Protein backbone atom coordinates (compact mmCIF):
# COMPACT_ATOMS: atom_id res chain seq x y z
CA UNK A 1 0.00 0.00 0.00
CA UNK A 2 1.29 3.43 -0.92
CA UNK A 3 2.48 5.61 1.92
CA UNK A 4 1.51 9.26 1.59
CA UNK A 5 2.85 12.29 3.36
CA UNK A 6 -0.29 12.35 5.52
CA UNK A 7 0.55 8.94 7.02
CA UNK A 8 3.69 10.11 8.77
CA UNK A 9 4.73 13.20 10.63
CA UNK A 10 4.85 16.08 8.20
CA UNK A 11 8.27 17.36 7.26
CA UNK A 12 9.29 20.99 6.84
CA UNK A 13 8.89 20.54 3.10
CA UNK A 14 5.42 18.96 3.43
CA UNK A 15 4.21 21.94 5.45
CA UNK A 16 5.85 24.45 3.13
CA UNK A 17 4.51 23.03 -0.13
CA UNK A 18 0.92 23.01 1.16
CA UNK A 19 0.93 26.81 1.25
CA UNK A 20 3.41 27.34 -1.61
CA UNK A 21 2.16 25.16 -4.50
CA UNK A 22 4.73 23.85 -6.94
CA UNK A 23 3.68 24.84 -10.50
CA UNK A 24 4.37 21.48 -12.14
CA UNK A 25 1.66 18.87 -11.63
CA UNK A 26 2.52 15.20 -11.95
CA UNK A 27 0.36 12.25 -12.92
CA UNK A 28 -0.79 10.22 -9.92
CA UNK A 29 -0.68 6.62 -11.14
CA UNK A 30 -3.15 4.06 -9.88
CA UNK A 31 -3.44 0.29 -10.30
CA UNK A 32 -6.43 -1.67 -11.64
CA UNK A 33 -7.27 -3.08 -8.20
CA UNK A 34 -6.66 0.09 -6.17
CA UNK A 35 -9.53 1.14 -3.93
CA UNK A 36 -11.16 4.58 -4.01
CA UNK A 37 -9.55 6.65 -6.79
CA UNK A 38 -8.28 3.56 -8.56
CA UNK A 39 -11.83 2.26 -8.94
CA UNK A 40 -13.09 5.44 -10.59
CA UNK A 41 -13.10 5.71 -14.35
CA UNK A 42 -10.52 8.40 -15.06
CA UNK A 43 -10.81 10.65 -18.06
CA UNK A 44 -8.39 9.72 -20.84
CA UNK A 45 -6.19 12.79 -20.99
CA UNK A 46 -2.62 11.49 -21.43
CA UNK A 47 -0.85 9.68 -24.27
CA UNK A 48 1.76 6.93 -24.13
CA UNK A 49 3.88 5.29 -26.83
CA UNK A 50 5.13 1.69 -26.86
CA UNK A 51 8.63 1.04 -28.17
CA UNK A 52 8.73 -2.64 -29.09
CA UNK A 53 6.98 -4.60 -26.33
CA UNK A 54 5.37 -3.52 -23.05
CA UNK A 55 4.04 -5.96 -20.44
CA UNK A 56 0.28 -6.18 -20.00
CA UNK A 57 0.68 -4.95 -16.43
CA UNK A 58 2.24 -1.71 -17.66
CA UNK A 59 -0.59 -1.18 -20.13
CA UNK A 60 -3.22 -1.91 -17.46
CA UNK A 61 -1.77 0.65 -15.04
CA UNK A 62 -1.50 3.28 -17.76
CA UNK A 63 -5.09 2.62 -18.81
CA UNK A 64 -6.35 2.98 -15.22
CA UNK A 65 -4.28 6.16 -14.79
CA UNK A 66 -5.90 8.00 -17.70
CA UNK A 67 -3.54 7.14 -20.57
CA UNK A 68 -4.32 6.19 -24.17
CA UNK A 69 -1.80 4.65 -26.57
CA UNK A 70 -0.57 6.71 -29.51
CA UNK A 71 1.45 5.60 -32.52
CA UNK A 72 3.20 8.99 -32.71
CA UNK A 73 6.17 9.25 -30.36
CA UNK A 74 6.19 13.06 -30.55
CA UNK A 75 2.70 13.17 -28.99
CA UNK A 76 3.49 10.88 -26.07
CA UNK A 77 3.94 12.03 -22.51
CA UNK A 78 5.44 8.66 -21.57
CA UNK A 79 7.36 6.13 -23.68
CA UNK A 80 7.46 2.55 -22.37
CA UNK A 81 8.76 -0.79 -23.60
CA UNK A 82 12.12 -1.47 -25.21
CA UNK A 83 14.99 1.01 -25.13
CA UNK A 84 14.90 3.71 -27.78
CA UNK A 85 17.79 4.27 -30.15
CA UNK A 86 20.27 6.76 -28.71
CA UNK A 87 19.46 9.39 -31.31
CA UNK A 88 15.74 9.24 -30.43
CA UNK A 89 16.46 9.69 -26.72
CA UNK A 90 18.52 12.76 -27.55
CA UNK A 91 15.62 14.38 -29.43
CA UNK A 92 12.88 13.88 -26.83
CA UNK A 93 11.17 16.99 -25.54
CA UNK A 94 12.00 18.07 -22.00
CA UNK A 95 8.55 17.07 -20.72
CA UNK A 96 8.66 13.56 -22.21
CA UNK A 97 9.84 10.54 -20.23
CA UNK A 98 11.04 7.10 -21.30
CA UNK A 99 11.67 4.07 -19.12
CA UNK A 100 15.29 3.48 -20.20
CA UNK A 101 18.51 5.44 -20.02
CA UNK A 102 21.14 5.10 -22.69
CA UNK A 103 24.13 2.81 -22.03
CA UNK A 104 22.38 0.77 -19.30
CA UNK A 105 23.98 -2.45 -20.55
CA UNK A 106 27.22 -1.13 -19.08
CA UNK A 107 25.62 -2.46 -15.88
CA UNK A 108 22.76 -4.66 -17.02
CA UNK A 109 24.83 -7.22 -18.92
CA UNK A 110 27.08 -9.81 -17.30
CA UNK A 111 30.13 -8.44 -19.12
CA UNK A 112 29.25 -4.84 -18.30
CA UNK A 113 28.74 -5.60 -14.61
CA UNK A 114 32.05 -7.47 -14.48
CA UNK A 115 33.93 -4.55 -16.03
CA UNK A 116 32.33 -2.14 -13.58
CA UNK A 117 33.46 -4.30 -10.68
CA UNK A 118 36.96 -4.37 -12.16
CA UNK A 119 36.88 -0.56 -12.16
CA UNK A 120 35.79 -0.53 -8.51
CA UNK A 121 38.63 -2.94 -7.70
CA UNK A 122 41.15 -0.65 -9.41
CA UNK A 123 39.73 2.38 -7.58
CA UNK A 124 39.64 0.87 -4.09
CA UNK A 125 42.54 -1.58 -4.33
CA UNK A 126 40.47 -4.69 -3.58
CA UNK A 127 37.61 -6.63 -5.12
CA UNK A 128 34.23 -5.71 -3.59
CA UNK A 129 33.27 -8.34 -1.02
CA UNK A 130 29.82 -8.63 -2.60
CA UNK A 131 31.19 -9.64 -6.02
CA UNK A 132 32.31 -13.27 -6.40
CA UNK A 133 35.71 -13.87 -7.99
CA UNK A 134 35.02 -13.74 -11.73
CA UNK A 135 36.86 -13.74 -15.05
CA UNK A 136 35.90 -12.61 -18.53
CA UNK A 137 37.24 -15.05 -21.09
CA UNK A 138 39.04 -15.10 -23.42
CA UNK A 139 40.42 -11.70 -22.26
CA UNK A 140 41.23 -12.94 -18.72
CA UNK A 141 41.88 -16.58 -19.58
CA UNK A 142 45.44 -16.51 -18.23
CA UNK A 143 44.28 -15.22 -14.84
CA UNK A 144 41.50 -17.82 -14.75
CA UNK A 145 43.97 -20.64 -15.42
CA UNK A 146 46.18 -19.40 -12.61
CA UNK A 147 43.29 -19.49 -10.12
CA UNK A 148 41.05 -22.26 -11.42
CA UNK A 149 42.30 -24.88 -8.96
CA UNK A 150 41.16 -22.76 -5.99
CA UNK A 151 37.62 -24.09 -6.46
CA UNK A 152 36.12 -27.43 -7.51
CA UNK A 153 33.11 -25.77 -9.13
CA UNK A 154 32.63 -22.65 -11.23
CA UNK A 155 29.62 -21.04 -12.89
CA UNK A 156 30.04 -20.28 -16.61
CA UNK A 157 27.59 -17.96 -18.32
CA UNK A 158 27.47 -16.22 -21.71
CA UNK A 159 28.72 -12.64 -21.36
CA UNK A 160 25.59 -11.25 -22.98
CA UNK A 161 23.07 -13.88 -21.89
CA UNK A 162 19.82 -13.41 -19.99
CA UNK A 163 16.97 -15.39 -18.39
CA UNK A 164 19.33 -18.22 -17.40
CA UNK A 165 20.18 -19.13 -20.99
CA UNK A 166 23.46 -21.00 -21.44
CA UNK A 167 24.46 -21.07 -17.74
CA UNK A 168 26.46 -24.13 -16.66
CA UNK A 169 28.13 -25.47 -13.54
CA UNK A 170 31.61 -26.52 -14.70
CA UNK A 171 34.60 -28.41 -13.34
CA UNK A 172 36.88 -27.55 -16.29
CA UNK A 173 37.62 -24.30 -18.06
CA UNK A 174 34.99 -24.05 -20.81
CA UNK A 175 36.10 -24.11 -24.42
CA UNK A 176 34.86 -21.15 -26.43
CA UNK A 177 33.79 -20.98 -30.03
CA UNK A 178 35.45 -18.12 -31.96
CA UNK A 179 33.89 -14.77 -31.20
CA UNK A 180 32.17 -15.88 -27.99
CA UNK A 181 32.80 -14.47 -24.53
CA UNK A 182 31.89 -15.89 -21.15
CA UNK A 183 31.95 -14.89 -17.50
CA UNK A 184 33.38 -17.66 -15.32
CA UNK A 185 32.49 -17.06 -11.68
CA UNK A 186 33.66 -18.90 -8.58
CA UNK A 187 30.91 -21.08 -7.16
CA UNK A 188 29.57 -20.05 -3.74
CA UNK A 189 29.85 -23.38 -1.90
CA UNK A 190 28.37 -22.44 1.47
CA UNK A 191 25.03 -20.87 0.51
CA UNK A 192 22.32 -20.41 3.09
CA UNK A 193 19.58 -22.96 2.39
CA UNK A 194 15.82 -22.92 2.84
CA UNK A 195 14.46 -26.40 3.54
CA UNK A 196 17.68 -27.81 2.09
CA UNK A 197 17.30 -25.85 -1.14
CA UNK A 198 19.55 -23.20 -2.61
CA UNK A 199 17.86 -19.83 -3.23
CA UNK A 200 18.49 -16.34 -4.51
CA UNK A 201 16.70 -13.02 -4.11
CA UNK A 202 15.46 -10.53 -6.67
CA UNK A 203 15.56 -6.91 -5.52
CA UNK A 204 14.01 -4.12 -7.57
CA UNK A 205 16.02 -0.89 -7.73
CA UNK A 206 14.79 2.34 -9.31
CA UNK A 207 16.92 5.19 -10.62
CA UNK A 208 14.41 7.94 -11.48
CA UNK A 209 17.06 10.67 -11.79
CA UNK A 210 20.70 10.85 -12.90
CA UNK A 211 21.34 14.51 -12.11
CA UNK A 212 20.98 14.64 -9.22
CA UNK A 213 21.41 10.92 -8.70
CA UNK A 214 18.53 9.36 -6.77
CA UNK A 215 18.33 5.63 -6.03
CA UNK A 216 15.41 3.73 -4.46
CA UNK A 217 14.94 0.10 -3.43
CA UNK A 218 11.51 -1.58 -3.39
CA UNK A 219 10.24 -3.14 -0.18
CA UNK A 220 9.25 -6.42 -1.83
CA UNK A 221 10.70 -8.80 -4.37
CA UNK A 222 11.13 -12.47 -5.18
CA UNK A 223 12.72 -15.42 -3.40
CA UNK A 224 13.52 -18.11 -5.99
CA UNK A 225 14.29 -21.60 -4.76
CA UNK A 226 15.98 -24.44 -6.61
CA UNK A 227 14.04 -27.68 -7.05
CA UNK A 228 16.52 -30.38 -6.00
CA UNK A 229 18.25 -30.57 -2.57
CA UNK A 230 21.65 -28.90 -2.54
CA UNK A 231 23.90 -31.03 -0.33
CA UNK A 232 22.83 -34.33 -1.85
CA UNK A 233 23.83 -33.00 -5.28
CA UNK A 234 27.00 -31.12 -4.38
CA UNK A 235 29.06 -33.74 -6.22
CA UNK A 236 26.67 -33.72 -9.19
CA UNK A 237 27.11 -30.42 -11.03
CA UNK A 238 25.06 -31.76 -13.93
CA UNK A 239 21.94 -31.50 -11.73
CA UNK A 240 21.39 -27.84 -12.54
CA UNK A 241 18.06 -27.75 -10.69
CA UNK A 242 20.04 -28.13 -7.44
CA UNK A 243 22.71 -25.55 -8.26
CA UNK A 244 20.90 -22.82 -10.21
CA UNK A 245 17.85 -20.93 -9.00
CA UNK A 246 16.70 -19.32 -12.25
CA UNK A 247 12.95 -19.63 -12.70
CA UNK A 248 13.41 -20.52 -16.38
CA UNK A 249 15.60 -23.50 -15.39
CA UNK A 250 13.45 -24.84 -12.56
CA UNK A 251 9.85 -24.25 -13.64
CA UNK A 252 9.63 -27.41 -15.77
CA UNK A 253 11.45 -29.68 -13.30
CA UNK A 254 9.64 -32.42 -11.43
CA UNK A 255 8.93 -31.27 -7.90
CA UNK A 256 8.73 -27.57 -8.75
CA UNK A 257 5.79 -26.00 -6.91
CA UNK A 258 4.49 -22.75 -8.34
CA UNK A 259 3.19 -20.46 -5.62
CA UNK A 260 0.06 -18.84 -7.01
CA UNK A 261 -2.14 -18.00 -4.02
CA UNK A 262 -0.67 -15.25 -1.81
CA UNK A 263 -2.08 -17.17 1.16
CA UNK A 264 0.59 -19.81 0.41
CA UNK A 265 3.45 -17.31 0.32
CA UNK A 266 6.43 -18.96 2.01
CA UNK A 267 5.65 -22.36 0.51
CA UNK A 268 6.79 -23.83 -2.78
CA UNK A 269 9.66 -22.58 -4.95
CA UNK A 270 8.75 -18.93 -5.38
CA UNK A 271 8.08 -16.52 -2.51
CA UNK A 272 7.78 -12.83 -1.91
CA UNK A 273 10.25 -11.23 0.50
CA UNK A 274 7.65 -11.13 3.29
CA UNK A 275 8.28 -14.64 4.70
CA UNK A 276 12.04 -14.43 4.11
CA UNK A 277 12.86 -11.98 6.89
CA UNK A 278 11.23 -14.04 9.69
CA UNK A 279 13.02 -17.10 8.30
CA UNK A 280 16.39 -15.33 8.56
CA UNK A 281 15.67 -14.36 12.16
CA UNK A 282 14.68 -17.96 12.94
CA UNK A 283 18.14 -19.23 11.89
CA UNK A 284 19.97 -16.60 13.91
CA UNK A 285 20.55 -13.99 11.21
CA UNK A 286 19.87 -10.28 11.62
CA UNK A 287 17.46 -9.34 8.84
CA UNK A 288 18.23 -5.64 9.41
CA UNK A 289 21.95 -6.28 8.97
CA UNK A 290 21.36 -8.30 5.79
CA UNK A 291 19.18 -5.51 4.38
CA UNK A 292 21.83 -2.91 5.21
CA UNK A 293 24.56 -4.92 3.49
CA UNK A 294 22.41 -5.35 0.39
CA UNK A 295 21.46 -1.68 0.23
CA UNK A 296 25.08 -0.58 0.70
CA UNK A 297 26.23 -2.91 -2.08
CA UNK A 298 23.44 -1.83 -4.44
CA UNK A 299 24.32 1.82 -3.84
CA UNK A 300 28.00 1.22 -4.56
CA UNK A 301 27.15 -0.59 -7.80
CA UNK A 302 24.95 2.27 -9.02
CA UNK A 303 27.62 4.82 -8.07
CA UNK A 304 30.13 2.84 -10.12
CA UNK A 305 27.81 2.83 -13.15
CA UNK A 306 26.68 6.43 -12.82
CA UNK A 307 29.49 8.08 -14.77
CA UNK A 308 28.70 5.89 -17.80
CA UNK A 309 24.94 6.48 -17.60
CA UNK A 310 25.60 10.20 -17.43
CA UNK A 311 27.12 10.21 -20.94
CA UNK A 312 23.86 11.30 -22.55
CA UNK A 313 22.52 14.61 -23.73
CA UNK A 314 19.45 15.01 -21.55
CA UNK A 315 19.38 13.55 -18.04
CA UNK A 316 15.78 14.49 -17.38
CA UNK A 317 14.02 12.36 -20.00
CA UNK A 318 14.43 8.89 -18.52
CA UNK A 319 14.19 6.57 -15.55
CA UNK A 320 15.18 2.94 -15.06
CA UNK A 321 14.17 -0.16 -13.11
CA UNK A 322 16.91 -2.72 -12.42
CA UNK A 323 16.66 -6.25 -11.07
CA UNK A 324 19.50 -7.12 -8.67
CA UNK A 325 20.06 -10.84 -8.02
CA UNK A 326 21.48 -11.53 -4.56
CA UNK A 327 22.68 -14.59 -2.65
CA UNK A 328 23.29 -15.01 1.09
CA UNK A 329 25.79 -17.50 2.50
CA UNK A 330 25.96 -19.32 5.84
CA UNK A 331 28.17 -16.56 7.31
CA UNK A 332 25.68 -13.76 6.57
CA UNK A 333 27.73 -12.50 3.61
CA UNK A 334 25.82 -11.23 0.60
CA UNK A 335 26.78 -11.45 -3.08
CA UNK A 336 25.31 -9.50 -5.98
CA UNK A 337 25.50 -12.14 -8.68
CA UNK A 338 24.26 -10.00 -11.55
CA UNK A 339 22.16 -6.99 -12.47
CA UNK A 340 19.35 -7.01 -15.03
CA UNK A 341 17.78 -4.28 -17.12
CA UNK A 342 14.14 -4.84 -18.09
CA UNK A 343 13.42 -7.30 -15.25
CA UNK A 344 10.47 -9.54 -16.11
CA UNK A 345 7.13 -7.93 -15.26
CA UNK A 346 4.92 -10.83 -16.26
CA UNK A 347 2.06 -11.60 -13.89
CA UNK A 348 1.18 -15.23 -14.52
CA UNK A 349 0.34 -15.81 -10.85
CA UNK A 350 -1.44 -13.99 -8.05
CA UNK A 351 1.90 -13.74 -6.24
CA UNK A 352 3.44 -11.97 -9.25
CA UNK A 353 0.56 -9.51 -9.36
CA UNK A 354 0.83 -8.92 -5.61
CA UNK A 355 4.50 -7.91 -5.94
CA UNK A 356 4.72 -6.29 -9.35
CA UNK A 357 1.53 -4.23 -9.54
CA UNK A 358 2.56 -1.75 -6.81
CA UNK A 359 6.14 -1.92 -8.13
CA UNK A 360 5.18 -0.61 -11.57
CA UNK A 361 2.72 1.95 -10.20
CA UNK A 362 5.26 3.29 -7.72
CA UNK A 363 8.16 3.63 -10.15
CA UNK A 364 5.95 5.72 -12.41
CA UNK A 365 4.99 7.87 -9.43
CA UNK A 366 8.52 8.54 -8.15
CA UNK A 367 9.68 9.28 -11.71
CA UNK A 368 7.49 12.40 -11.71
CA UNK A 369 5.70 12.24 -15.06
CA UNK A 370 4.35 15.78 -15.71
CA UNK A 371 0.70 16.05 -16.72
CA UNK A 372 1.68 18.16 -19.70
CA UNK A 373 4.93 18.38 -21.68
CA UNK A 374 4.55 22.17 -21.65
CA UNK A 375 6.41 23.09 -18.47
CA UNK A 376 7.18 26.47 -16.92
CA UNK A 377 10.25 27.77 -18.73
CA UNK A 378 12.22 27.98 -15.50
CA UNK A 379 11.82 24.20 -15.17
CA UNK A 380 12.08 23.46 -18.88
CA UNK A 381 15.42 25.25 -19.05
CA UNK A 382 16.90 23.30 -16.14
CA UNK A 383 18.71 20.86 -18.43
CA UNK A 384 20.28 23.76 -20.34
CA UNK A 385 21.37 25.33 -17.06
CA UNK A 386 23.02 22.07 -16.04
CA UNK A 387 24.77 21.76 -19.41
CA UNK A 388 26.06 25.33 -19.07
CA UNK A 389 27.67 24.32 -15.79
CA UNK A 390 29.53 21.41 -17.36
CA UNK A 391 32.42 23.57 -18.52
CA UNK A 392 35.73 22.21 -19.85
CA UNK A 393 38.30 21.74 -17.10
CA UNK A 394 40.30 24.77 -18.23
CA UNK A 395 37.24 26.96 -17.66
CA UNK A 396 36.41 25.74 -14.17
CA UNK A 397 37.92 28.77 -12.50
CA UNK A 398 35.42 30.99 -14.29
CA UNK A 399 32.45 29.38 -12.56
CA UNK A 400 31.12 30.94 -9.37
CA UNK A 401 30.60 28.80 -6.30
CA UNK A 402 27.14 27.26 -5.75
CA UNK A 403 24.60 29.91 -4.83
CA UNK A 404 23.82 28.20 -1.55
CA UNK A 405 27.34 28.84 -0.24
CA UNK A 406 28.32 32.15 -1.91
CA UNK A 407 27.30 35.76 -1.23
CA UNK A 408 24.79 37.27 -3.63
CA UNK A 409 27.29 39.42 -5.56
CA UNK A 410 30.79 38.55 -6.66
CA UNK A 411 31.71 41.10 -9.31
CA UNK A 412 34.41 42.92 -7.35
CA UNK A 413 36.82 40.04 -7.62
CA UNK A 414 36.17 39.28 -11.28
CA UNK A 415 39.11 39.19 -13.65
CA UNK A 416 37.64 41.97 -15.81
CA UNK A 417 37.11 44.43 -12.95
CA UNK A 418 40.49 46.12 -13.47
CA UNK A 419 39.88 46.89 -17.12
CA UNK A 420 37.08 48.41 -19.13
CA UNK A 421 34.18 49.50 -16.90
CA UNK A 422 31.63 48.18 -19.37
CA UNK A 423 33.41 44.83 -19.41
CA UNK A 424 33.38 44.77 -15.62
CA UNK A 425 29.69 45.65 -15.55
CA UNK A 426 28.91 42.94 -18.08
CA UNK A 427 30.84 40.38 -16.08
CA UNK A 428 29.00 41.40 -12.89
CA UNK A 429 25.69 40.89 -14.66
CA UNK A 430 26.75 37.51 -16.02
CA UNK A 431 27.83 36.30 -12.59
CA UNK A 432 24.61 37.53 -10.99
CA UNK A 433 22.63 35.83 -13.75
CA UNK A 434 24.49 32.55 -13.20
CA UNK A 435 23.92 32.78 -9.46
CA UNK A 436 20.23 33.41 -10.06
CA UNK A 437 20.02 30.35 -12.31
CA UNK A 438 21.78 28.30 -9.66
CA UNK A 439 19.28 29.36 -7.02
CA UNK A 440 16.38 28.41 -9.29
CA UNK A 441 18.01 25.09 -10.12
CA UNK A 442 18.64 24.35 -6.45
CA UNK A 443 14.99 24.99 -5.63
CA UNK A 444 13.77 22.71 -8.43
CA UNK A 445 16.28 20.02 -7.40
CA UNK A 446 15.06 19.98 -3.80
CA UNK A 447 11.38 20.14 -4.75
CA UNK A 448 11.64 17.19 -7.14
CA UNK A 449 13.51 15.15 -4.52
CA UNK A 450 10.89 15.82 -1.86
CA UNK A 451 7.87 15.51 -4.16
CA UNK A 452 9.11 12.08 -5.24
CA UNK A 453 9.55 11.10 -1.59
CA UNK A 454 5.95 12.13 -0.89
CA UNK A 455 4.74 9.50 -3.37
CA UNK A 456 7.35 6.79 -2.80
CA UNK A 457 4.86 3.99 -2.10
CA UNK A 458 6.86 0.81 -1.57
CA UNK A 459 10.15 2.42 -2.59
CA UNK A 460 12.66 3.80 -0.10
CA UNK A 461 15.45 6.21 -0.97
CA UNK A 462 18.90 4.69 -0.39
CA UNK A 463 20.83 7.48 -2.16
CA UNK A 464 21.34 10.21 -1.24
CA UNK A 465 21.41 9.67 2.51
CA UNK A 466 23.63 11.43 5.00
CA UNK A 467 25.25 8.18 6.16
CA UNK A 468 26.05 6.86 2.68
CA UNK A 469 27.48 10.19 1.55
CA UNK A 470 29.92 9.92 4.45
CA UNK A 471 30.76 6.28 3.67
CA UNK A 472 30.78 6.28 -0.15
CA UNK A 473 31.10 9.87 -1.32
CA UNK A 474 34.65 9.27 -2.57
CA UNK A 475 33.29 6.67 -5.04
CA UNK A 476 30.95 9.26 -6.57
CA UNK A 477 33.29 10.51 -9.29
CA UNK A 478 31.07 12.73 -11.45
CA UNK A 479 28.92 14.46 -8.88
CA UNK A 480 27.20 17.62 -10.08
CA UNK A 481 26.12 20.85 -8.39
CA UNK A 482 22.68 19.25 -8.07
CA UNK A 483 24.18 16.31 -6.20
CA UNK A 484 26.03 18.70 -3.91
CA UNK A 485 22.80 20.61 -3.32
CA UNK A 486 20.94 17.49 -2.21
CA UNK A 487 23.84 16.62 0.05
CA UNK A 488 23.48 20.00 1.74
CA UNK A 489 19.70 19.63 1.89
CA UNK A 490 19.75 16.32 3.76
CA UNK A 491 22.31 17.78 6.16
CA UNK A 492 20.29 20.95 6.86
CA UNK A 493 18.42 21.24 10.15
CA UNK A 494 14.75 22.24 10.07
CA UNK A 495 15.43 25.98 10.38
CA UNK A 496 17.96 25.87 7.55
CA UNK A 497 15.50 23.97 5.35
CA UNK A 498 12.74 26.46 6.06
CA UNK A 499 14.97 29.45 5.32
CA UNK A 500 16.22 27.85 2.11
CA UNK A 501 12.69 27.16 0.84
CA UNK A 502 11.37 30.62 1.68
CA UNK A 503 14.30 32.39 0.04
CA UNK A 504 14.34 30.29 -3.12
CA UNK A 505 10.56 30.24 -3.54
CA UNK A 506 10.26 34.00 -3.98
CA UNK A 507 12.72 34.01 -6.89
CA UNK A 508 11.08 30.95 -8.37
CA UNK A 509 7.56 32.38 -8.10
CA UNK A 510 8.63 35.65 -9.70
CA UNK A 511 10.09 33.81 -12.69
CA UNK A 512 6.99 31.67 -13.14
CA UNK A 513 4.70 34.72 -12.81
CA UNK A 514 6.72 36.62 -15.41
CA UNK A 515 6.27 33.95 -18.09
Automatic annotation (TrEMBL):
Record bears the keyword Ligase: yes
GO terms of molecular function: ATP binding; tubulin binding; tubulin-glutamic acid ligase activity
A Gene Ontology biological process term: microtubule cytoskeleton organization
Compositionally biased residues, Basic and acidic residues: 387-400
Keyword set, alphabetical order: ATP-binding, Ligase, Nucleotide-binding
InterPro entries: TTL/TTLL_fam (IPR004344)
Gene Ontology, cellular component aspect: ciliary basal body
Disordered: annotated span: 387-429
The protein's name in its UniProt record: Tubulin-tyrosine ligase family protein
Organism from which the protein derives: Tritrichomonas foetus
